[in-house]
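PT: before anyone asks, these are the final sequences, not the draft ones from last week. 230 residues across everything. Please model them as a single complex and drop the result in this thread when it's through.
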Amino acid sequence: DTEVTQTPKHLVMGMTNKKSLKCEQHMGHRAMYWYKQKAKKPPELMFVYSYEKLSINESVPSRFSPECPNSSLLNLHLHALQPEDSALYLCASSRNPDSTYNSPLHFGNGTRLTVT
Amino acid sequence: GNSVTQMEGPVTLSEEAFLTINCTYTATGYPSLFWYVQYPGEGLQLLLKATKADDKGSNKGFEATYRKETTSFHLEKGSVQVSDSAVYFCALSDRGSSASKIIFGSGTRLSIRP
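LR: through. Structure below.
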């Protein structure tokens, strides 16, 4: 069982919808991440929160809006998505925000998003 | 810049066969090296790691040795099982780097026949 919980597992949304993805961890990790994974590809980093503050935005379009309400929760708000945004969205956490050198990532099982 | 190169998949083996998945890296510093595994329908899980040259990471019968002289971190298992069917990602993280500096290889899909 993964210690990072993501909901929902599957989401189908139209291009005019607004939806949110949720992620929760209770390991006391102070870094949380959103990744996007297309089929047969490695994960691509989208956002990083360090100590509940956005520290990295990898030039992600504004139709994706992250939020970190507290140290255990991470949301990804979706609005006006395009069909090419269909992918597996993975949340991850790590103990030390300042270095992943010795602080591996812990991933959730992801939300499979389909944009119609 | 840093990079990770993995052998192309898919790799198909019979149960109890010996497995090697090659991984080589390029790094300017002294990175940590990782193998992550992704089972069907799941996220990535850390399989093993090594943080310095000559370290051997091991878990669930899998092993990988950090070889600085050949810049390699090949994944091996002596006898694979059907349950090992998954996608395997080699990754590196440079010393002092943030999450944006985690470099994943392209992944190698492994299928094990009963």
